[in-house]
């Protein structure tokens, strides 16, 4: 081990204070999560509204009116699912452009671009007169999500001191859950505003986008991004400002050394194909895939639809979705408090057990007592709501926030934006797949769809036990020495 490696592997946390200015930066940047969460929560409630279905999907509305229609199939329509999923297909493509923008222009301008696209998408969706306008609006929202989900977690990880990095990064996921809850509350409030309540729901998406736009003008660029673009003096000055101390030379030198090493890697996407890049790349992509295959977005997108399926009326299903939204927010706060104390692996493993039990129990109840026609008893429907909340609780303090945190903190600076782009695009692709397929899967698999997701959760637990290293308390630019080279599996990939 040479002297530089020894310094990195033995260094302590760098000095810092929690300043009011940097707290404002974190808060404003996390509006990207609010923007993303609002969209996740809004689509399920809107697609369940009668006025929306009558205008854009009259066949779905007619099918729903049939009293003896199959409980599991009444929302099985590819165009209805495309309304939700088209956003994530656009986000998949544009996350790679966002990676280039992060490298060339910085994290701050990329966040600004995200807010502008999202504002345009919200305006077009709310004013849509036909399905084509609706889908184009969703695609513009997807561009905003692609840019925001790439830039915001990177911004939060790079600006946070190491001892608070987990909690700060989870601000993004906390705002996602607040956005979902806000969307459910808006849907519930406008569900009786006929015939344009759905337009209000879609238009309000512009509010968090406006907050992100204002935030993008106020926040500081990250020191890492400034040093990457040869703005050394500004980077040093910014680091002092966000740390609240003058003694930042050690941290600045590490950032500078990492960026100098990054410049030697002329093609970051090509660097990702090297053997030493496989550990963070595999971990980053796998966590994003697993996050979606828990079934969480199937539940969050279609919570009102799901609750209607098990016997709730329209208002009751929207109210139940609000309840799950509250649970989601509160449980994410638990993660903010616990992630830098308990560590990443403990939270992920505990949640696997909790989510597995929930999915299996829901599947058993629906399989035994929800026929293709009819509904559950009030007690059984209440049990399903409780189990959904129990599931959401486990996800919200583990796989939800940590699925974004871990990939944002494990890549070296030379492949950080490119590697995180692969992680984001994997998330968007599997979100698209689940959103596009869930209602059709529920139609054909019926209650077995919950056993399908439970099987994935079991695999995820094994992955955490054997392949996921603990990254709690490790400086972001010291992962190679202190994590990958010491892991029994991944050390074989390191030079």
Automatic annotation (TrEMBL):
Gene Ontology MF terms in the entry: monosaccharide transmembrane transporter activity; symporter activity
Localization per Swiss-Prot or TrEMBL: Membrane
Membrane association type: Multi-pass membrane protein
Keywords for this protein: Membrane, Sugar transport, Symport, Transmembrane, Transmembrane helix, Transport
Major facilitator superfamily (MFS) profile domain residues: 25-472
CC annotations in GO: membrane
Domain of life where this protein originates: Eukaryota
Residue stretches in coiled coil: none
Stored SUPFAM superfamilies: MFS general substrate transporter (SSF103473)
Membrane-spanning parts: 20-38, 79-98, 110-129, 135-156, 168-190, 196-219, 281-305, 317-339, 346-368, 383-406, 418-439, 445-468
Family to which the UniProt record says this protein belongs: Belongs to the major facilitator superfamily. Sugar transporter (TC 2.A.1.1) family.
NCBIfam families from the UniProt entry: SP
Protein name in UniProt: Major facilitator superfamily (MFS) profile domain-containing protein
Upper lineage: Eukaryota, Viridiplantae, Streptophyta, Embryophyta, Tracheophyta
């Amino acid at each position: 081990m040479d002297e530089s490696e020894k310094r990195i592997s033995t260094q302590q946390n760098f000095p810092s204070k929690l300043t009011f200015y940097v707290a404002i930066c974190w808060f404003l940047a996390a509006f990207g999560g609010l923007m993303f969460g609002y969209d996740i929560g809004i689509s399920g409630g809107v697609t369940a509204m009668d006025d929306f279905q009558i205008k854009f999907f009259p066949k779905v509305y007619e099918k729903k009116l049939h009293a003896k229609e199959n409980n599991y199939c009444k929302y099985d329509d590819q165009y209805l699912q495309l309304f939700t999923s088209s956003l994530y297909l656009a986000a998949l493509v544009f996350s790679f452009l966002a990676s280039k923008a992060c490298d060339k222009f910085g994290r701050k301008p990329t966040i600004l671009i995200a807010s502008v696209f999202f504002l345009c998408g919200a305006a077009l969706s709310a004013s849509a007169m036909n399905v084509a306008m609706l889908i184009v609006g969703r695609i513009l929202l997807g561009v905003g999500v692609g840019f925001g989900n790439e830039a915001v977690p990177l911004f939060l990880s790079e600006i946070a001191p190491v001892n608070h990095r987990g909690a700060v990064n989870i601000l993004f996921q906390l705002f996602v859950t607040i956005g979902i809850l806000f969307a459910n509350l808006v849907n519930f409030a406008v569900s009786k505003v006929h015939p344009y309540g759905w337009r209000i729901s879609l238009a309000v998406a512009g509010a968090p986008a406006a907050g992100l736009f204002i935030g993008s003008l106020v926040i500081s660029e990250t020191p890492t991004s400034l040093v990457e673009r040869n703005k050394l003096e500004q980077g040093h000055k910014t680091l002092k400002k966000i740390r609240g101390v003058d003694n930042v030379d050690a941290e600045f030198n590490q950032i500078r050394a990492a960026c100098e090493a990054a410049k030697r890697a002329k093609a970051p996407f090509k660097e990702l194909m090297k053997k030493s890049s496989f550990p963070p790349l595999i971990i980053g992509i796998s966590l994003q895939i697993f996050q979606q295959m828990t079934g969480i977005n199937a539940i969050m997108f279609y919570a009102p639809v799901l609750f209607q399926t098990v016997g709730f009326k329209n208002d009751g299903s929207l109210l139940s979705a609000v309840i799950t939204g509250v649970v989601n927010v509160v449980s994410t706060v638990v993660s903010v408090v616990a992630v830098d104390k308990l560590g990443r692996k403990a939270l992920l493993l505990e949640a696997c057990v909790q989510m597995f039990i929930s999915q299996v129990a829901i599947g058993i109840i629906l399989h035994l007592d929800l026929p293709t026609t009819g509904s559950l008893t009030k007690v059984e429907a209440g049990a399903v709501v409780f189990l959904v909340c129990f599931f959401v609780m486990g996800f919200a303090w583990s796989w939800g926030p940590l699925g974004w945190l871990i990939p944002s903190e494990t890549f070296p600076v030379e492949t950080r934006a490119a590697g995180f782009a692969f992680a984001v695009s994997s998330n968007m692709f599997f979100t698209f797949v689940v959103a596009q397929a869930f209602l059709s899967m529920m139609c054909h698999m019926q209650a077995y769809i919950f056993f399908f997701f439970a099987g994935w959760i079991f695999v995820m637990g094994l992955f955490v036990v054997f392949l996921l290293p603990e990254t709690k308390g490790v400086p972001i630019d010291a992962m190679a020495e202190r994590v990958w080279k010491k892991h029994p599996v991944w050390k074989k990939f390191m030079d």
